[in-house]
Amino acid sequence: MANEETLILDGSAKSKEIQEEIKAEVEQLKEEEGVVPGLSIIFVGDNPASASYIKLQQRVCSKVGIDSEVVDLPEDISQEDLLAELDKLNNDDSVNGILIQLPLPDHIDEKKVIGSINPEKDLDAFHPYNIGELVIDGDAYVPCTPEGVMALIDKYDIDVKGKDVTVVGHSNIVGKPMALLLLNRNATVSVCHIDTKDTASYTKNSDIVVVAAGVPNLITADMVKEGAIVIDVGINQVDGKIVGDVDFENVKEKAAAITPVPGGAGPMTIAMLLKDTVRSCKNMLNK
Prior knowledge:
Blueprint: E1 7-8, H1 11-33, E2 38-44, H2 48-64, E3 67-73, H3 79-90, E4 97-100, H4 110-114, H5 128-135, H6 144-155, E5 164-168, H7 175-184, E6 188-192, H8 199-203, E7 208-211, E8 229-232, E9 236-238, E10 241-243, H9 248-251, E11 257-258, H10 265-285
Parallel strand pairs: 1-11, 2-3, 2-4, 5-6, 5-7, 7-8, 8-11
Antiparallel strand pairs: 9-10
Helix pairs in contact: 1-10, 6-7, 6-10
């Protein structure tokens, strides 16, 4: 029997609340300033999963009134031509946010391209400037997924200060920035990854577990303590279904709060993308 007291951290519902707030902000910007926030996405090649995600981003942008465009570029584009396209967006005042859909083809130097984005338009927050700002708890952009996790935590009034937290996964996109955001809130953070000898020894002693490893059902019920908060960032396809990195049905019997997959961290990621596009637009108006 399911634990009826377990709080389901509903990212879909909270994302919709944020989208309504953003829609009102966009309408206000249009009426008072005569501007519409704009997002540009550079898409090299034709990866179907990436194309599907970009369509979702555009659909949600449209819903709140943000202009979005996709710069479709061929798989064999030269690095020089890609950087030229990026330079145009960097210098276009109607573009408030720039996303580069990763991964890029092997012949492109990903670090070089990311380092060439205007940091003030870098909504993925992969530019070294934005990463540095995150380390010192500055005011620059942070990657949308960990930012969304923190926003979800805040929506449910979960205080991380002084809590023991384990982040499972140490990618540049989620794990590392997630750990830094939690550290900046004075949590005590452990980070586990593929070479960690005994991940369970960390997770089962943690008040909060955040999982972003890309391994279906990696975190099982015996790996979490009673009353833990479990946040699943994983997205995996298993037998035609989307599942996370957590064995949801069994872990929720022990957890005080848990995110579902889908419907947890994912919708919050897109909400943060919208929020940061509007923030960038306001920043550019105030320069």
